[in-house]
Write a structure and sequence with these properties.
The protein is of the alpha/beta class. The chain has eleven helices and 18 strands.
Length: 301
């Protein structure tokens, strides 16, 4: 059975707290694991969350600030220590290549795994697999930053009443799915498009075109909300979003499940992020993330 869920490994902004580790987010997408922004301490959080190195297939870094990337060294070495049998791809801003190199080779270890470096230097498609396309969009932060988007290909939903009306039954149902037609009956006559699921990961950024493009029509949007709305000037000055801004993006984009994260240590009441997100008019499912939480991707419509 396929599993699509977000495993939250850390939710702190800039510095960890007693209750929040640095960033780290694993998206389980069927048989693959995509690790986003492994900050310091991610390897230990993986252990606590029951995530193994063998679960990882892609590493996606939005930008090279420490709370989003210092965990790379430990994660990469653990991948090699455990001799992960499959290839792993790493995506990160090309402008930060020197930082990736330093983290990849921070200390001596034996390389046993094929780690393919696939840096990002423009908006567009980074990879296409059987079950998803990985895209990137430029964000607005003091250092170069990219957000990521997973898009599942559209499928077809067979409609029993139309199948019955056209006399299509038994093995012929599979045949018309494979071949697209059965005599004069076409696949369009007995089915409809089932839109693929969409997931977006948006970290440190001001409001910009990239944020809206990534969020558009998503089933799940994981997005930073470093500040509360009363500190919007600080957010803009430092290249971040407020809870209300993040929720407004989600509202306007038709997001089904909004996950707020990357919280400044200055705030002690996480419920205030939810209150401000609701005040901004977001009416969908809402999670104010906490460490070691598992959040299912919404089922297809």
């Amino acid at each position: 059975m396929s599993v699509r869920e977000l495993v939250v490994l850390g939710t702190a902004s800039q510095v960890p707290t007693r209750h929040r580790n640095h960033n780290g987010y694993l998206l389980r997408w069927d048989g693959e694991g995509i690790l986003f922004d492994p900050g310091e301490g991610t390897q230990r959080q993986m252990l606590r969350a029951g995530v193994a190195a063998h679960d990882l297939h892609r590493l996606c870094v939005t930008h090279f600030h420490g709370d989003h990337s210092l965990g790379l060294a430990g994660v990469i070495q653990r991948i090699n220590l455990d001799r992960v049998p499959h290839e792993i791809s790493a995506h990160y801003p090309r402008s930060g290549q020197k930082f990736f190199d330093r983290l990849r080779y921070a200390t001596a270890y034996r390389e046993t795994v094929a780690l393919t470096e696939a840096p990002v230097d423009a908006d567009g498609v980074l990879a296409a697999t059987r079950t998803y396309t990985l895209e990137a969009r430029r964000l607005s932060h003091p250092v170069e930053s990219y957000g990521y988007r997973i898009v599942e290909p559209d499928g077809r939903r067979m409609l029993p009443e139309r199948l019955a009306a056209h006399g299509v039954r038994g093995p012929d149902v599979g045949r018309i799915q494979r071949e697209g037609a059965l005599g004069d009956v076409t696949l369009d006559d007995v089915s409809e498009v089932r839109r693929g699921q969409r997931f977006a990961f948006v970290m440190d950024t001001r409001l910009c075109d990239g944020v809206h493009a990534l969020a558009e029509g998503c089933d799940m949007l994981v997005i930073e909300s470093t500040f509360l709305d009363e500190d919007v000037r600080l957010a803009t000055d430092h290249g971040h979003l407020t809870a209300g801004q993040a929720a407004t993006v989600a509202r306007d984009a038709g997001v089904r499940h909004l996950v707020l994260t990357h919280f400044s240590q200055r705030y002690s009441d996480p419920e205030e992020f939810e209150r401000q997100a609701r005040a901004a008019g977001f009416e969908g499912e809402l999670t104010v993330a906490h460490d070691l939480q598992r959040v299912p991707v919404p089922k297809r419509r």
